[in-house]
């Protein structure tokens, strides 16, 4: 085995993990600032200049708070739940292409942990596993509100995964690949998939809100009905893990949407930039562009949260089963017909 290859992968994994945690940490700050802006307030402004140290203060608070485990809780499952939620949130980053390959001499260093040929199926598998952390935590708490939240999360996840999967089928008809690396590479320049699959993108984005439990689909955390939802009984860093997992899921969802529909690291004029800057700087510029797209989606997640009121649960189910799934099936049929006509002529 090539030792340099192993070192490259370990370094890349460490960098991606660190960036994921950093973005999750400062997403809490950005969320409060966006909410303050929309509500004509200042938001956090005490800890450091403009409040930029507030996430660090929150992290220290989480570590320093007393650890409480309810007497009647299933102790081991109670501890496993937050860890599983955090684990499934982080492993989704493994198949995302963060940039084109960097070439240094004879060595080509891909900015992707692994490019498996079923990358989209991997993402769906990780998304499916993510709900288990919520379900286990809600059930193990031995709290009726937490249990109801876990049941809601499972039902919501199953309902919206179907529409999300159907929206991806239409995209696969266009791209002829399930590898995220190939899908992104085929969107060179302006050939972004959103131009060919606008309805598919809209369906995927709506389902992403539901899969990440973000408003207006945050029924598992509905504080007016369920106190705090599945993490009602949690405190200290276990609660922090659940909160961090939500923001990492939002980051990964934004990265997947940017990869599948908005070209990932591709941007207009990248061939000229490559000719001017070389095979090291140009891929890093592409990575920076990719992160700008991700931040735009994260801002949109936050904007929607503080703009649109939460659905009722019956409205949530109605939208998933009676609106999104029929639209996704119609999108597959229309895409198939268009492709068949194009291939014939």
Task: Describe the protein in words.
It is a single chain. With 345 residues, the protein is mainly α. It is built from eleven helices and two strands; from the N terminus they run H-H-H-E-E-H-H-H-H-H-H-H-H. The chain has helices spanning 3-38, 54-64, 75-91, 119-140, 144-175, 180-185, 198-211, 223-226, 236-261, 270-305, 313-344; strands at residues 102-104, 107-109. Helix 4 runs antiparallel to helix 5 and helix 7 (198-211) runs antiparallel to helix 11 (313-344). The mean pLDDT is 91.
- Strands across the major sheet, in which order? 1-2
SSE arrangement, N to C = HHHEEHHHHHHHH
The count of helical stretches stands at 11
Helix share, percent: 55-70%
Outline the biggest β-sheet: 2 strands, antiparallel
Low-pLDDT parts are none
Strand content: under 5%
By secondary-structure content and strand pairing, the structural class works out as mainly alpha
Report the oligomer. Answer: single chain
List the helices and strands and how they pair.
Blueprint: H1 3-38, H2 54-64, H3 75-91, E1 102-104, E2 107-109, H4 119-140, H5 144-175, H6 180-185, H7 198-211, H8 223-226, H9 236-261, H10 270-305, H11 313-344
Antiparallel strand pairs: 1-2
